[in-house]
Amino acid sequence: MEMTFRWYGKEDPVTLEKIRQIPGMKGIVSAIYDIPVGEAWPLDKIKELKAEIAKHSLELSVIESVPVHEDIKIGLATRDKYIENYKTTIKNLGEAGIPVICYNFMPIFDWTRSSLDYELADGSTALIFEEDVVDKMDPLTGELSLPGWDSSYEKAELQTLFDHYKKVDHEKLWSNLEYFIKAIMPVAEASGVKMAIHPDDPPFDIFGLPRIITNKLNLERFIKLYDSPNNGLTMCSGSLGAVPENDFPEMLRYFGKKNRVNFIHARNVKLSGTRSFQESPHLSETGSIDMYEVIRAMKDFNYTGPIRPDHGRMIWGETGKPGYGLHDRALGATYLNGLWEAENKRRKY
Ligand code: DNO
């Protein structure tokens, strides 16, 4: 595995100087944040980002995300022009030597939580999802926005989008995804770029909008849309593991053996209901996911790709982007490195 860390660019209070001091840190997961969703990313901007990261002896290992324009997800006639732009971005990223692109296909909203600063028993704060709270939220106010969302929409746009999505059920979303995948994958293959779709977070419908990248059956359906290792997955333990019916380590092993795991997000969640959870520290005993099993699964298919510690709590008085502080994510990276070293050595003896 290659240990990586998400960096939100020059505005991020967690600087590259700090990230490179985390033991074993090799790569950066980042994006270009000032290009409107749907436009092509110019090669020179990509090269600039890569060079900035290289100055700190780190590598730009993954782009997360190249966002998918809503017209593609809805299946509007305008989608073709956005798909052409997406193909240009993939081609340019390939030319700059970026090996992996993470993206998602969630309608309108990216990852969603009911609170960003829930106080845990130890005084740290974490992100949580409580179904009954989310059920009462009004998604049309335009006030719902989370740190790190690829895109968020103004109130007026939201109503139009919701109107469009009235005609998009799960099967329609699948066919729009298939259309997109079949169009972009030949370019990804020719450019040497591995695509890694991120599961829906949480992995069930919210606000009446369909979500389809949610469980083993659907991931299997997804990889069959286009049979190529370039058409792969981001296996995110916290997203898929947020519902009791998903056995994350088993799914990781299964898709890993099929050579479809192109990126891994590791974090823990503590389930507090069938559709409610708290983000917990990475350590197995604090959450519902057995992180040692995750590492064992990775070893079972000899994973050599990128992994990043996903969201951390806010600890030691740190302030900043909820989920994306330095300290708890650095602890997460160190813990994962420890499990990995131990499992590697155990297998050699
Ligand atoms: C949350 C992240 C997601 C992810 C996108 C990928 O912290 O895992 O925002 O970056 O869904 O497109």
UniProtKB/TrEMBL annotation:
InterPro entries: Man_deHydtase (IPR004628), Xyl_isomerase-like_sf (IPR036237). It catalyses: D-mannonate = 2-dehydro-3-deoxy-D-gluconate + H2O. It is an enzyme of class 4 (lyase). Its cofactor is Fe(2+); Mn(2+). Keywords: Iron, Lyase, Manganese. It comes from the Bacteria. SUPFAM superfamilies: Xylose isomerase-like. One of its GO terms (molecular function) is mannonate dehydratase activity. Pathway: Carbohydrate metabolism; pentose and glucuronate interconversion. GO terms for biological process: D-glucuronate catabolic process. Its EC number is 4.2.1.8. It holds the Pfam family UxuA. Belongs to the mannonate dehydratase family. Catalyzes the dehydration of D-mannonate. This is Mannonate dehydratase. It comes from Halolactibacillus halophilus.
